Amino acid sequence: MGLIVLSLTQLIVVLDGTIVTIALPDAQQDLGLTDGQRQWVVTAYALAFGALLLIGGRVADYWGRKKAFIVGLVGFGLASFLGGIAPNGADLILARALQGLFAALLAPSSLALLTVSFPSGRERNTAFAVFGSVAGAGSALGLVLGGLLTELANWRWCLFVNIFFVAAGIIGGIFFITGSKTEGKSRYDLWGVITVTLGLGALVYGFTLAEKGWTRLDTLGFLALGIGFLVMFVWVQTRATSPLLPLRIIRHRVRGSAFFIQAVAGSVAIGGTVFMSYHLQVVLMMSPLQAGLASLPFTLSTLSAAPLATKALQRYGPRPLLVTGPLIVALGLLHLSGITATGTYLQQVLPGFIIIGIGMAAVYVPLQNLALAGVAAQDSGVAGAASTSMMQIGGSVGLSVFTAVAAASYGTVLLADGALAPASLTQGYSAAFIAAAAGMALAGAVAAAFLRGRDGNPGNPKTEQKEAMEVG
């Protein structure tokens, strides 16, 4: 029951990264959002989530993981309600950022509770496979649920629906989850929080400005500022008494590789779905419900392939999955890059969805487990935060990069009202999918280069002991 509750909260966190995607055209029209504001409805959530996850993980470790879990749920529900009643675009973006803030407390506490509850063996493999499958399917499920709610009610219910999930999570958390915490004096790395938050914020904003041109002074300035703050963050971590992100967590060869793959997968799961949602609704002229249902094969293929991936993990370890999974996703994205304004869903979109879903199952099933291989108990919260943070940061940066790539690749054919013609839009979408495919191919190459044999397979006691000794 504890696994069910924790998986439910993982669904909430991942699902909210995409549930508003289908609703964006309606929300944009209702609130009069500009294209830039429209992107920030997605980016504000992912950026606040990713930037604050590390401090959220430390708070969960020191404050108590069950307490952080409950508080995160309550805050997430309140922020969802504020977003649902938002009267304008600025309030909606602010509410989405607040959702990300409380998700940054909720996600690492749930992942740390999972790590502590299932420390080793077959049960741990099964628990993380379930947890990872929920993460893999959550993004696509968000598209389906978002379309259903937008069509049958209105876009605001894409935020109100969280309240029901939150209520179930609070009740389940109280009765079925056992709390844990790191003993000792609580110390928080405030300089680390400041530098990593400013660094990620400046970097993502710089990528959003790149839509207007990569060589603009403001674009280059913010990108350089973001890199500078992140370099400063690393320097601070080497000297802090209680670092926000102990560098031993990311210097570890296995976990470092897993973190990189998570970032790239997040860019596809969050950033890529935005463009496919717009292709379905703007180019293929589907209603929100039709677009959501059209995304369902992605979810079904992920769920169908997850049990096979779990068996393969038990037998062969994570390396084969994390080498072939990203390459399968890349093939699916390359298929989607062939979309045209006159093409059909069955021919140009559906095969890509199925291929990507199968590949994502192979990626997600071992990934969370591998990212936490050999982590000491006192670091479980911050390691879980780093793991989830990579996904969200990858999503926010990926969306910004893909948007800039698409903007630079749009055609010049216009409609009578001055808007880009469907043929012009598909040129930009195609370029974004090619960029995403290149990222996934690179993720597969990293797995091939840095993972060896049965590295990080938690079903192997010798591997567990070796990982723990390396970290210690």
Structural commentary:
By secondary structure, the protein is mostly helical. About 80% of the residues lie in helices and about 0% in strands. Residues about 460-470 have low confidence and may be disordered.
Q: Please report the total strand number as a whole number.
A: 0
The residue-averaged pLDDT reads 84
Q: How much is the radius of gyration in Å?
A: 21 Å
Distance between the termini: 32 Å
Q: What does the overall shape look like?
A: globular
- As an assembly, this protein is single chain
| Biggest sheet layout | none
Low-pLDDT stretches: 458-472
Strand content: under 5%
Helix content: over 70%
Task: Note the total helix count.
Answer: 19
Topology:
Elements: H1 2-15, H2 19-31, H3 35-63, H4 65-84, H5 89-117, H6 121-152, H7 157-160, H8 162-176, H9 190-209, H10 217-239, H11 247-251, H12 253-283, H13 288-294, H14 296-316, H15 318-336, H16 345-371, H17 380-409, H18 422-450, H19 461-471
Please supply descriptive tags for the structure shown above:
0% strand; 19 helices
